[in-house]
Amino acid sequence: MKLVLASQGFMNDKIANEVSKLVGKPLENINVAIINEAYVVLGGDKSKRWLINELSRIEKYIGGRIDFVNLRAHSKEEIRKRLLDSDLVYIVGGKQFALPSLLKELNLTDVIEEVAKKDIVIMGTSAGANLLGKHIESKDFWRERYDVEEENIENKTLGLIDINIIPHYLRKDRSDWTEEFYERTLKDNPFKVYALTDDEALFYDNGKMYFVGSPRIFGK
C-alpha cells in the first residue's frame, strides 16, 4: 500500500518529486484520477479559491492524463475502472465528515480499499488525508475542535494505516488550534498523529514511513 497524506498537495518540488518516486514514474507520465466531493458541502460564505489553487498545482506538476471521478455521477463499476486505470488517486479535502459519509452512502469503501491493495498511490489532502488514516479517539479533540461528541460519529475514517495527521498546522487561519491545544487533547490518543504544515507531507510505502518536512508528533 502506497499513501501520501498532505495538507495542501503539490506545494513544492520536494513533495512532487517524492510522489514521482512513490508512483515509479516521471511526473510527466503520471495519470491522475481526482476525487473532489468533499468541498461541495462547505458553506457559500467560505471562499473556494484554495480549491482552484490546489487543482492548478496538479496541472503544473502532473503531465499525464488528469481525470475527475465524480462519485455520484458514475456507477460503482465505472468508478472502480477509472481509479484502477490511474497511477495516482488524488482525494481533495473539504468538509471533515463528507467523504466517509459519502463512501458509506454509495457503498464505495471497498473500492478505495481495493485500489490501495493494488499499490496505486492514493494521495489525500486535508480532510482527504484524514479519510485515509485511523479515526482519532480523543473525546476532547472532537468536542473542542468540531463541536461533536466522539461517540456520536458514525461515519469514521477508512483506517488504512494506524496513524493520522493534523493538516494546516499552525496556519494563520487556524491560530485557535495551538500546539498546547493538540498536546492536551491528543495526549491520550492511542496512536501517533502528525501535525503537518501546508509545505509538508507524510509518505507511506508498504510499511515504511517518511516525510517531506519535520512534523510535530502528538499522541502515544
Q: What's the CATH class, please?
A: Alpha Beta
Sheet with most strands: strand arrangement: 3-2-4-5-1-8-9
Strand content: 15-25%
CATH homologous superfamily caption:
Class I glutamine amidotransferase (GATase) domain
Q: Any idea what the radius of gyration is?
A: 16 Å
Alpha-carbon distance between the termini? Answer: 23 Å
Tell me which oligomeric state these chains represent.
single chain
Structure classification: alpha/beta
- The CATH architecture comes to 3-Layer(aba) Sandwich
The biggest sheet, with number of strands, parallel, antiparallel or mixed sense and barrel status, is: 7 strands, mixed
Number of domains: 1
Assign a percent range to the helix content. 25-40%
Label the overall shape.
globular
**Average pLDDT taken over every residue:** 94
Residue stretches low in confidence (pLDDT < 50, at least 5 long) are none
Number of helical stretches of at least 4 residues: 8
Number of strands: 10
Give, in order, the helices and strands: EHEHEHEHHEHHEHEEEE
Report on this model:
The chain has a 7-stranded mixed sheet with strand order 3-2-4-5-1-8-9. The protein has a 3-stranded mixed sheet with strand order 6-7-10. The mean pLDDT is about 95. The protein has one domain: Rossmann fold (3-Layer(aba) Sandwich). The two termini are about 25 Å apart. It has 8 helices and 10 strands. It has about 220 residues and is α/β, with parallel strands linked by helices.
